[in-house]
User: Which sequence fits this backbone?
C-alpha cells in the first residue's frame, strides 16, 4: 500500500487552466473511447469462428448498402448542381440546397447517428468538470461531428461545389466558401434541434407523441403521394416532393438555401452577393445562438428528467391490517379450468403491462399496418398481382415483428435475476414470453390479411392464402426456434421504445443478420414455388412444399423448448454478464 | 468569523409540484467532516447535485469557499471533488486513462497527472487492472476509482455520496484513513451515507434532512445532547429540548426521522406487520 503525499492533496492557488489543455484532453478521451470500443472480448474456439463468419457476412451485406447511401446523395448533388448551372436553371440550385438540408436534418432527427449507438459517452457529462461555458460550447459543437448525416451532408455540399465549379469555373471558389458556411449553418441547425429535442424527449409522454408524429409524418407523405398519383391515373407517377421543391423556387430565396444559392449566382454583383452571404451567415449565427441558449441552461444544471411530481401527488395510504396468514396460497395447484399455469399467467401479465405502458412500442407495432393500408391503396403495389401482394405484405410486417423473438430477455435487464432465483421452470417463462410475441405477431398478420382482402382489387386465390398461411407458420416457427436459442445464448440489454444514448433495438448484429437471412431465405424459397405453381398450373404446389416445412419448423421449436431449461442453466454466466452488469 | 466552506441560504429545488429540497440553510465550516443524513428520498443526492453545480436550484443561494456557485462555477469546480451517486465514469476507458483524463481536465500538468495517477492506482489497489475497461470493473472497484478521480486534483472540499457502498472492509479502512488525513490537512468533507456507524465514527458535524427539509444540524455532541439547531429558513437557531442521556447517532436519527410531519410514528410496530413471515 502506498502513501499519498500530503502536499499533493491540498494545493495552493493555481493559475487558470489553458483552453488547449481541456480541449485536447476531451479529444484524447474521445479517441481512447473510440479505440477501446474496437477492442471486444473475443469468444474462443467454435464460437469465435461463428462470430467471425457472422461479422464477415454482415459486413458484406451492410457495407455496400452504406456505400450506396453515401454515394447516391453525393453523386446526385454534384450532378444536379452541375445541371442547374450549366443549363441556366439557377432556381434549381436553391431547391437542391434545400433538399440537402431537409435530408440532413431528417436523418439526424431520426437518430441514425454513430454517436447515438455509443452509450458510454454523453457529452453533457462534461459539465461536472471545471469548464468555462465558451469551452463547453466549442466542445459540444465539435463532439459528434462524425455522424452519417453530417458526413453525407458535407460530402453532398462538396460535390455540389465541384459540380458548380465544373459548370462554371469562375463560381468554384465562391461556391466553396458559401457552401462551407451553409454546411456550418446545417451543423448548428442540427445541434439546435438536437439540444431542444433532448430537452423535450426527456419526458416519456413527449417521446411517445414524437414517435407518433414521426410515424404520421412518414405515413402522411405516402398519402400525399397517393393523392398525386390516384389509382385511376396509373401512368402519372412522379415524386410530389421534387415537384413541390421545383415549383417553390421563388419562395426559397427567403430561406438560408436561397441565400446560399443567390450568394453563389450573384457573384458578378458583389454587393448583392455579399448581402445574400450576410443573410446566410446571420442564419448560421441565429441557430448557433439558440443552441447556445439551450446549452447554457444545461451548463447551469438544468434537470432533464421527469421530476417527482407523481411521487408528490400520491398520498400515503392508511395501513390496513394484514390478512390472516395463508401459507399454502402460493403452492396451491392451478385451477383445472386455467389455460396456462399461474407462473405463465404472471409472466404474461407482466409482459402485457410493460407493452401497454409503452406508447412508443405500440406505435411501432401499428406503423407497419398503416403502411400496408397505404401500399394496398396504391395501384402500383396492389396491381402487380393481388396473389403476390399478400405474401409480400406479410413478409414486410414480419420483418419488423420477428426481431423481438431474438432477445426475449433483453428488456428485463437485471430483472432477469428474478426468474433465475424464483422457484419457477424457465420453460414457463420462455413459453410466456413467446406466447406474448406470438399474440402480437398473430394480431399483426391477421390484420394485414384483413386489410389486403378488403382493399385488394381482386380476391386472393384460396391456394395462395393457404400456402401463405403455411409459409407464415414455417417462418414464425423457425424464427421462434432460432430466436429463443439466440435469446439464451446472446442476450443484450435494451430499453424498449427509448431514443438517443440508449440501446433501443432488441437485436445485436448477428441476430439482426439471422432475422434477415431466415426471412430473406424463406422469401427466396417462396418466389420460385409461387412462379412454378403459376407456370405449371399447380395451385396446391406451395401447400406441399410449405406444409412439411411448417411441420418441421414447429418440431424444431418444440425440440428447442425441451432443451431451453438446460440451455439457460448453462448460460447463467452470460445472463449475468450481459443483463445484470452495473 | 471564518468563511464557511459550504453555505446555503433558503436552498430549494422543486420538480414539478414536488419539492425535493425545501428552504435548506446549511453551514459547513472549513476543515469539518460533515455527515449529511436522511432516509431514502429525503433529498440528500439532490442537495449534493446542487452543491456541486450539477443541478440548478429553484431558489436560494449557494456559496462554496466564500464564492457564489452560480457566478463562479468553473473556479469552484476546480476546488471541489465529487463522488456522485452514479459515479459518472466513462466505461470505455481503463482506470489509468480515466485518471489521466480527469487530471488534465483539472489543469494538472502532464508529469503531475502521471505521478498522481500511478500513486492513486496503487493506493486504491487498482494498479493490477491496467488493461481492464472500467465497464468490466466490479461495483466496489468503480467506487474506488471514482474516489481516486475525485481527489486527483487535491480538492479543498470533497463531496461523497455513499462512497463506501460496495467497497470491501480492507479498502474501506484505507479510504477512511485517507479521508481523515485530508481533514487533518485542512480539507472539508461532505459525506452522505446510510451506514450511520461510519458517519458517527468519521463526522464531527451532522445535518439530517427529512422529506426535503433540514430537521437537525449541529455537532455530534450537540446532537447527542439534544441541543441541535434546525436549519430551516425562518426557524433558524430554534433549539430542541435537551435530552437526558447520551445517545447513539442511530437513536437520534430514528428519533428525528421516525415520525411523519405531524409527529406520528411513520411505521407500524414490526410485529403487527408481515405476520405471515416465519
Assistant:
Amino acid at each position: 500500500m502506498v502513501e499519498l503525499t500530503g502536499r499533493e492533496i491540498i494545493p495552493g492557488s493555481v493559475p487558470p487552466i489553458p483552453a488547449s489543455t481541456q480541449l485536447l484532453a476531451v479529444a484524447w478521451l474521445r479517441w481512447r473511447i473510440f479505440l477501446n470500443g474496437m477492442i471486444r472480448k473475443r469468444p474462443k474456439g467454435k464460437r469465435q469462428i461463428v462470430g467471425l463468419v457472422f461479422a464477415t457476412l454482415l459486413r458484406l451485406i451492410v457495407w455496400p448498402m452504406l456505400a450506396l447511401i453515401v454515394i447516391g446523395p453525393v453523386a446526385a448533388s454534384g450532378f444536379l448542381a452541375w445541371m442547374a448551372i450549366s443549363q441556366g436553371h439557377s432556381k434549381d440550385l436553391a431547391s437542391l440546397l434545400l433538399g440537402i438540408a431537409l435530408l440532413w436534418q431528417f436523418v439526424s432527427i431520426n437518430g441514425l447517428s454513430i454517436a447515438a449507438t455509443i452509450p458510454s459517452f454523453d457529452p453533457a457529462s462534461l459539465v461536472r468538470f471545471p469548464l468555462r461555458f465558451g469551452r463547453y460550447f466549442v466542445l459540444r459543437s465539435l463532439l459528434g461531428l462524425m455522424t452519417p448525416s453530417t458526413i453525407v451532408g458535407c460530402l453532398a455540399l462538396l460535390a455540389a461545389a465541384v459540380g458548380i465549379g465544373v459548370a462554371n469555373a469562375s463560381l468554384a471558389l465562391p461556391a466553396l466558401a458559401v457552401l462551407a458556411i451553409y454546411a456550418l449553418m446545417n451543423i448548428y441547425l442540427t445541434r439546435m434541434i438536437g439540444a431542444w429535442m433532448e430537452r423535450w424527449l426527456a419526458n416519456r409522454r413527449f417521446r411517445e407523441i414524437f414517435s407518433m408524429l414521426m410515424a404520421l409524418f412518414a405515413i402522411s407523405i405516402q398519402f400525399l403521394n397517393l393523392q398525386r398519383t390516384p389509382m385511376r391515373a396509373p401512368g402519372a407517377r412522379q415524386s410530389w416532393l421534387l415537384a413541390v421543391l421545383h415549383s417553390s423556387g421563388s419562395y426559397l430565396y427567403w430561406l438560408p438555401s436561397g441565400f446560399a444559392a443567390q450568394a453563389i449566382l450573384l457573384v458578378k454583383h458583389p454587393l448583392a452577393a455579399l448581402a445574400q452571404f450576410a443573410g446566410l451567415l446571420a442564419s448560421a449565427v441565429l441557430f448557433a445562438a439558440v443552441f447556445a441558449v439551450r446549452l447554457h441552461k444545461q451548463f447551469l444544471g438544468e434537470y432533464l428528467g421527469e421530476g417527482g411530481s407523481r411521487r408528490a401527488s400520491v398520498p400515503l395510504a392508511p395501513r390496513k391490517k394484514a390478512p390472516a396468514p395463508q401459507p399454502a396460497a402460493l403452492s396451491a395447484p392451478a385451477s383445472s379450468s386455467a389455460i396456462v399455469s399461474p407462473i405463465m399467467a404472471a409472466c404474461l401479465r407482466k409482459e402485457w403491462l410493460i407493452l401497454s405502458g409503452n406508447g412508443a412500442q405500440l406505435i411501432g407495432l401499428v406503423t407497419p399496418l398503416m403502411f400496408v393500408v397505404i401500399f394496398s391503396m396504391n395501384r402500383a403495389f396492389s396491381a402487380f398481382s393481388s396473389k403476390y401482394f399478400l405474401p409480400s405484405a406479410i413478409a414486410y410486417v414480419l420483418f419488423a415483428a420477428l426481431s423481438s423473438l431474438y432477445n426475449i430477455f433483453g428488456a428485463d435487464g437485471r430483472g432477469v435475476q428474478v426468474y433465475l432465483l424464483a422457484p419457477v421452470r424457465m420453460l414457463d417463462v420462455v413459453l410466456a414470453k413467446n406466447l406474448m410475441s406470438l399474440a402480437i405477431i398473430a394480431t399483426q398478420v391477421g390484420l394485414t390479411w384483413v386489410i389486403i382482402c378488403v382493399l385488394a382489387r381482386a380476391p386472393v386465390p384460396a391456394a395462395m392464402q393457404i400456402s401463405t398461411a403455411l409459409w407464415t407458420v414455417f417462418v414464425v416457427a423457425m424464427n421462434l426456434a432460432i430466436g429463443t436459442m439466440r435469446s439464451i445464448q446472446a442476450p443484450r440489454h435494451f430499453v424498449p421504445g427509448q431514443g438517443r444514448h440508449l440501446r433501443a433495438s432488441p437485436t445485436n448484429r448477428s441476430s439482426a443478420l439471422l432475422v434477415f437471412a431466415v426471412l430473406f431465405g424463406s422469401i427466396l424459397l417462396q418466389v420460385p414455388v409461387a412462379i412454378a405453381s403459376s407456370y405449371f398450373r399447380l395451385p396446391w404446389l406451395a401447400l406441399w412444399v410449405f406444409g412439411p416445412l411448417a411441420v418441421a419448423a414447429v418440431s424444431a421449436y418444440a425440440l428447442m423448448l425441451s432443451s431451453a431449461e438446460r440451455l439457460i442453466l448453462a448460460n447463467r454466466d452470460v445472463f449475468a454478464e450481459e443483463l445484470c452488469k452495473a | 468569523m471564518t468563511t464557511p466552506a459550504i453555505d446555503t441560504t433558503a436552498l430549494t429545488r422543486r420538480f414539478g409540484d414536488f419539492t425535493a429540497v425545501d428552504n435548506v440553510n446549511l453551514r459547513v465550516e472549513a476543515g469539518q467532516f460533515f455527515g449529511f443524513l436522511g432516509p431514502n428520498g429525503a433529498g440528500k443526492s439532490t442537495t449534493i447535485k446542487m452543491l456541486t453545480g450539477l443541478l440548478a436550484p429553484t431558489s436560494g443561494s449557494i456559496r462554496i469557499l466564500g464564492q457564489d456557485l452560480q457566478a463562479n462555477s468553473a473556479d469552484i469546480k476546480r476546488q471541489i471533488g465529487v463522488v456522485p451517486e452514479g459515479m459518472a465514469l466513462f466505461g470505455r476507458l481503463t482506470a489509468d486513462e480515466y485518471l489521466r483524463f480527469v487530471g488534465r481536465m483539472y489543469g494538472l500538468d502532464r508529469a503531475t497527472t502521471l505521478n498522481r495517477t500511478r500513486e492513486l492506482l496503487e493506493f486504491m489497489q487498482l494498479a493490477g487492472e491496467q488493461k481492464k475497461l472500467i465497464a468490466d470493473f466490479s461495483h466496489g472497484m468503480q467506487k474506488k476509482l471514482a474516489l481516486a478521480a475525485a481527489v486527483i486534483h487535491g480538492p479543498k472540499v470533497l463531496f461523497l455520496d455513499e462512497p463506501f457502498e460496495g467497497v470491501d472492509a480492507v479498502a474501506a479502512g484505507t479510504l477512511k484513513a485517507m479521508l481523515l488525513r485530508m481533514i487533518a490537512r485542512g480539507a472539508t468533507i461532505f459525506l452522505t451515507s446510510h451506514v450511520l456507524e461510519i458517519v458517527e465514527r468519521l463526522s464531527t458535524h451532522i445535518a439530517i434532512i427529512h422529506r426535503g427539509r433540514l430537521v437537525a444540524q449541529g455537532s455530534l455532541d450537540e446532537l447527542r445532547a439534544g441541543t441541535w439547531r434546525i436549519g430551516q429558513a425562518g426557524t433558524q437557531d430554534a433549539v430542541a429540548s435537551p435530552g437526558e442521556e447520551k445517545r447513539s447517532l442511530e437513536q437520534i436519527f430514528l428519533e428525528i426521522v421516525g415520525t411523519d410531519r405531524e409527529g406520528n410514528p411513520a411505521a407500524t410496530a414490526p410485529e403487527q406487520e408481515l405476520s405471515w413471515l416465519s
Remarks:
- Chain A has two domains: 20-28+65-231+240-304, 342-579.
- The radius of gyration of chain A is 29 Å.
- Chain A touches chain B through 59 residues (CB under 8 Å).
- Chain A has a mean pLDDT of 77.
